[in-house]
Amino acid sequence: LRFDEKVRVVVFKSEVKGVFCAGADLKERAKMDDEEVGHFVKRLRNLMDEIAALPVPTIAAIDGYALGGGLELALACDLRVAASSAKMGLIETTRGLLPGAGGTQRLPRCVGIGLAKELIFTGRQIDGQQAFSMGLVNHTVPQNSEGDAAYQRALALAKEILPQAPFAVKMGKLAINRGMEVDIASGMAIEGMCYAQNIPTRDRQEGMAAFREKRPPQFTGK
């Protein structure tokens, strides 16, 4: 996906009704020794980092349970859409663990330190409406009879992104992600570098031409 220029948006959904991702299989984990557990969690953390580093926008469609590593997967995405009936939580402390695939870092960046600490310390599960009220998800929708309401809303969101200039969207994502990790002056410099890369693109010229000619732009990603 990273190197396929035809890919414009990636939507993560589950094929299992009622479950987005239930996290690690604790029965499997119980059979591992301490060293194996460490390697397993490191690989999982690397996977989440790879998802977060995808150059195109990513959307998690949470139609059911997103617990532990399942919520960490959703947090690795740029945008999250949840059914109101979905259940989310970093529940690791209820099993004698702590989040190990990015949860302690991505959740506070998403909802703030205080809320993140409360959710992680308590291991509390919240529904889609609660997640929306605290900014954990971008949208919450009532579940439908097919059980894919969040996926359908995620597709609609993806279709809003599709008409926009692909390279500009990628640079926007890069500027936000890199800029959030530094002070604002450094972030402005990052934005400037991303903007400079966008200036010579054909899409920028097409966007200007379309505006002058009062027609929809036809972006190609070049």
TrEMBL record:
Keyword Lyase: yes
Family annotation (CDD domains): crotonase-like (cd06558)
GO molecular function: enoyl-CoA hydratase activity
Pfam families in the record: ECH_1
SUPFAM superfamilies for the chain: ClpP/crotonase
Record's GO cellular component terms: mitochondrion
Annotated Gene3D superfamilies: 2-enoyl-CoA Hydratase, Chain A, domain 1 (3.90.226.10), Lyase 2-enoyl-coa Hydratase, Chain A, domain 2 (1.10.12.10)
One GO BP: fatty acid beta-oxidation
Keywords, comma-separated and alphabetical: Lyase
Protein family (similarity comment): Belongs to the enoyl-CoA hydratase/isomerase family.
Name of the protein this chain belongs to: ECHD2 protein
Gene: Echdc2
